[in-house]
Design brief:
single chain; alpha+beta; Umud Fragment, subunit A; 8-stranded antiparallel beta sheet; 4 helices; 12 strands; about 25% strand; globular
């Protein structure tokens, strides 16, 4: 009896079903993660100081703020003034060999007339209140920062924004290379809206873009 059992065991093939199941699980997890990143949301870190003081940026990603970008919202609604968006380089930026995504704040919407006067942004002739996200020391919003790109800079004069285009500016107005200089962002270039900061841990939370913005 003992020999029979021993013979049966020696003739059995190893049960590798758990390996196949593990591989299926790993592959499914990877595909799911890629699907979420492609269609729903993705994590990004802030590589520059153009959005200070709202978001801290540095070339050292371990010291930079890290955010979650919602890639689904704009499939069902339009970008709103105040939204912090991530977008791929526009045609104008690609001419300057920019390849990485940008992050800026939506300031001007399609159909609006935007101009700069005495260091302030005016929308349809009314000054835009921006004290809730600009630094306490009110920074001038001018084209003086535009040392490259279009010549003259895009906002050297009042401009009406065409359909499907958006004007975006950085919160750090004296250090941001943005729409003042190179122009507008087409809707199709927008990757998504920054909604949550998950690093550093002492600053974890939603990014509130609601503000008393005109109109």
């Amino acid at each position: 009896m003992q020999n029979q059992v021993s013979d049966q065991n020696s003739n059995q093939q190893p049960d590798n079903s758990w390996i196949a199941e593990l591989l299926r699980t790993v592959v499914l997890s990877i595909l799911l993660a890629l699907g979420i990143r492609t269609f729903v949301a993705e994590a990004r870190w802030i590589p520059s100081g153009s959005m200070e003081p709202t978001l801290h940026g540095t070339t050292n990603q371990w010291e930079a703020d890290k955010i979650i970008v919602d890639k689904l919202k704009y499939k069902f609604s339009d970008p709103q003034r105040g939204d912090i968006i991530v977008f791929s380089p526009t045609a104008e930026l690609q001419k300057e060999d920019y390849q990485d995504a940008f992050i800026k704040r939506v300031i001007g919407l399609p159909g609006e007339k935007v101009e700069l006067r005495e260091g302030n942004v005016f929308i349809n002739g009314k000054q835009l209140p921006e004290t809730n996200y600009l630094s306490k020391d009110k920074e001038r919003t001018s084209i003086e920062v535009c040392t490259s790109g279009k010549n003259p800079p895009f906002l050297y004069q009042a401009t009406t924004i065409p359909k499907g285009q958006y004007l975006v500016l950085g919160d750090n107005r004296t250090q941001s290379y943005d729409g003042r200089c190179w122009g507008l962002v087409p809707r199709e270039n927008i990757i998504g809206r920054a909604v949550v900061r998950f690093w550093p841990l002492n600053k974890v939370g939603g990014l509130d873009t609601k503000s008393p913005l005109y109109p």
